Amino acid sequence: MPTPDRTSLAEIVDAGRAVLEDGGLSRLTMQSVAERVGVRAPSLYKRVRDRDALIDAVVAATIDDLTDRLEASDRSLEGLASAYRAFAHERPEGFRLIFATRQPQTALDRASVAILDTARGLVGEDRSLEAARLVTAWATGFVQMELAGAFQLGGDLDDAFAFGVAALRRGLESV
Amino acid sequence: MPTPDRTSLAEIVDAGRAVLEDGGLSRLTMQSVAERVGVRAPSLYKRVRDRDALIDAVVAATIDDLTDRLEASDRSLEGLASAYRAFAHERPEGFRLIFATRQPQTALDRASVAILDTARGLVGEDRSLEAARLVTAWATGFVQMELAGAFQLGGDLDDAFAFGVAALRRGLESV
DNA sequence: ACCTGAACACCGTTCAAGT
DNA sequence: ACCTGAACACCGTTCAAGT
User: Fold this and answer.
1) Is residue A25 within 8 angstroms of chain B, CB to CB?
2) Across all residues in chain B, what is the average pLDDT?
3) Most A CBs within 10 Å: which of B84, B138, B146, as the mutation test of the A interface?
């Protein structure tokens, strides 16, 4: 006798993201997600292989949202960079998790395209991949260090970020 | 009746680092560290407040080693950058953990000095802090993405790294 | 077909009892 | 003064039994 579904994969992933932002990865337990969704922990295993798979799904959803933001920016170097940083500030735990997991992140493909387009406009086709990697690495590292509290020598972080984009633009335009 | 010490804080931290590189953070359990040190898990609590404090100590020791490497480099922009990257390749889990923990990282002070010196030589006193942050953010992000397998569009990563340092030098020299 | 309680393995942590 | 086994709380996961 079929029972009506009491939840769904999408609802579980959303609950996982909410719990993650609330309390960090260590609070992202099967029990806390189940409770938020109104079900018992063992029921989650009907939709999700295990906790790691749930975490992967949370990462994938986060990357999707991040990509939407990049695509919605003005696509300039400055626009991409600040959209990236703003997203990380909004969802610090989710952002952090993207680079804390080791897996085939084909979900990053869409984001790569947006950044590559802008990079191509700055340095041309030949060096666009390297230029995109420069910009992405810098933005990723900046935000991660910011979130980790690793910038401890004072100074204004907004200034440092603006200085960084400007220097990158100069460095790339002189290729 | 005093018992002779069967271990020490330093030995525990070293064991923690070894276990970490072997199996990642999730394998860094009190039990695995205790076993490696030849003691039962509860005994660790005589030297270490809890697992988080052990992790903090592992991070601090890792930052110390990293700083030694930076100081032992030729102190050029290129030398610092490749020393940084080489260290991350040697101790990927330890490196990763540095920016995965949120805490007062005064241990980063020594490393900051080395990078600031080099940055000052490139852009002068006024913008040295921002320049140091640009370089550190880029190197950190590059290596983290590399370790996470986030560079998935082919191309040579050594090339991309060299391209990055060169572009940063140009961007900074034209301040 | 989905949901649950019970059960098991494992981990962090405390503590009384050993030496 | 350090070390240990026993115990407790908590978590991930499986599974037989419910609907």
Assistant:
1) no
2) 95
3) B138
